Structure formats: C-alpha cells, structure tokens
Amino acid sequence: MLAMRADKKKNAEMVYLQTLAQRTPEYRERARIRSTEVWAKSKQMTAAARSLKDHLERRVFEGGE
Fold first, then answer.
1. Distances (CA, A) of 40 to 26, 28, 30, 53
2. Quick one: how far is CA 13 from the chain centroid?
3. Which pLDDT does position 29 carry in this prediction?
4. Percent of the chain clearing pLDDT 90 (strictly above)
5. Which range, of 15-24, 36-45, 55-64, averages the lowest pLDDT?
6. Distance (Å, rounded) from C-alpha 33 to C-alpha 44?
7. What is the pLDDT of residue 64?
8. How far apart are CA 38 and CA 40, in angstroms?
9. Contact (Cβ atoms closer than 8 angstroms) between residue 21 and residue 27
10. What is the rounded distance in angstroms from the CA atom of residue 9 to the CA atom of residue 14?
11. How far is CA 43 from CA 3, 13, 53, 54, 57, in A?
C-alpha cells in the first residue's frame, strides 16, 4: 500500500476511483444509514451513562435511592 501511495500516478488513480464510488446513490444511502445507526447508538450510550451517573450521585450524596 505504501508503494502504491508513493507512486503519484497510481495514488491519483486510486483517489479518483474511490471518489467515483462514493458519489453513487447506493454508496450514499449506505453511508446515510450507517451514520444514522452510529448517532443513535451514541445517543443511547450517552443516556445510559447519564442514568448511571445520576444513580451513583443519588447513592453518594443522598445516602440511598
């Protein structure tokens, strides 16, 4: 891979072909779906962490549930 990247002509060809592939409607739809999944998971994890933090703070500062 490093040798191909070092060759300016081959590198330009690879970047061009990759850009073409990423401009297709199918690729963009898959990327949109994946992005939506990642953001949903991130929000879910943030909510879970917030819930755990709230639970721990209640136990520490209020002495119970």
1. 21, 18, 15, 20
2. 27
3. 97
4. 60
5. 55-64
6. 17
7. 57
8. 5
9. yes
10. 9
11. 41, 38, 15, 16, 21
Q: Distance between CA atoms of 28 and 39, rounded to whole angstroms?
A: 16
Confidence check: pLDDT of 4 > 80: no
Largest CA distance in the chain: 68
Measured CA to CA, the distance from residue 51 to residue 29 in angstroms comes to 33
Structure tokens at 24: 């297709």
pLDDT of residue 5: 82
pTM of the model: 0.55
Q: Token match 């590198």: residue?
A: 11
The whole-angstrom separation of Cα 29 and Cα 26 is 5
Question: How far does Cα 52 stand from its chain's mean position?
Answer: 23
